[in-house]
Write a structure and sequence with these properties.
Length: 290
């Protein structure tokens, strides 16, 4: 049974529309978070608003301001925000389509799942999903969330859709000037070939379940140990040496990955003969002496 939908509305494409349900695609509860406590009594501390001139202030004396120049603010009243508040129309309006690889990762913000809103919507849901899959396209549209209009992308994901909220162009920084100090030099041919060999030997399907949040695991171990009154044992990770020979490191990486000429030719490298045990050697010697 699917979880409770966080949003219900319509997905509209031209004159076609059908009901959809939106679900959270990420789990924020898995992240490590801590609270601030008073050292003496371990009570949780509350945030206190303080004015640098008048000291602590009450919530009723707080107003919102927008800094349009350095240390210069314009006061924004609740009436001002209400005047520009967008009314939710509960519609994801797909306005255009782009190729599946057209959206750069810098623009992707938060992911959500979309499913059909009941059996009545399933037929149209499947038709649009498979049409997008056949054309290898992603739908781009708008959605009002929390009184703000967001750009969203919609793409097939299994039996449903994956919706991503996107950043506006004004929210994305340009990389101009960041890499001006990087020299335009042609890489060494041998080093480049070795690096390509390492990468090709490690190409695989994306399997995020193979990766573990080691910090979270170690943190929870510390918590469990302290609850039991034990001293936590922290295993330090081996550090990479500050200086090393780059070409030697490439060659060793190829060797350790088992990527050699045998693999290039489609042949597995020959196995080394198993070492003979001391017992077997002793028996052989006794047979010779006999």
């Amino acid at each position: 049974m699917p979880p409770r939908a966080m949003w219900t509305g319509q997905l509209r494409l031209s004159l076609v529309s059908f009901g959809v349900r939106m679900y959270a695609a990420t789990e924020s509860g898995a992240r490590v978070s801590m609270n601030q406590l008073h050292r003496g009594c371990h009570q949780r501390l509350k945030n206190q608003l303080t004015c640098p001139i008048h000291g602590p202030v009450e919530r009723d004396d707080v107003v919102k301001g927008y800094e349009y120049e350095k240390d210069t603010y314009v006061i924004i009243d609740p009436e001002d925000l209400e005047a520009i508040r967008l009314q939710a129309n509960h519609t994801i309006d797909l306005k255009t389509f782009v190729k599946a690889d057209a959206i750069g990762p810098l623009y992707v913000d938060s992911p959500y799942f979309l499913g059909p809103d009941g059996p009545v919507a399933e037929e149209a849901f499947r038709v649009i999903r498979e049409a997008m899959r056949a054309t290898n396209t992603i739908g781009i549209g708008t959605l009002i969330m929390s009184a703000r209009e967001r750009i969203v992308s919609v793409q097939p994901e299994g039996k449903g859709f994956l919706l991503n909220t996107l950043r506006y162009a004004t929210e994305v920084r340009s990389s101009d000037g960041l890499f001006d100090d990087v020299k335009e030099a042609k890489p060494d041919a041998e080093q480049l070939q070795l690096a390509e060999t390492i990468i090709k030997g490690k190409v695989d399907e994306f399997q995020p379940n193979l990766f573990e949040d080691h910090y979270r695991t170690a943190f929870l171990d510390v918590v469990k140990a302290k609850i039991k009154g034990q001293k936590p044992v922290i295993v330090e990770e081996t550090e990479t040496p500050t200086t090393y020979n780059f070409i030697d490191a490439l060659k060793r990486s190829v060797e350790e990955a088992g990527i050699g000429e045998g693999k290039k030719n489609g042949k597995k490298p020959a196995k080394k003969p198993a070492a003979k045990s001391a017992g077997a050697e002793g028996k052989k010697s006794k047979t010779k002496r006999a």
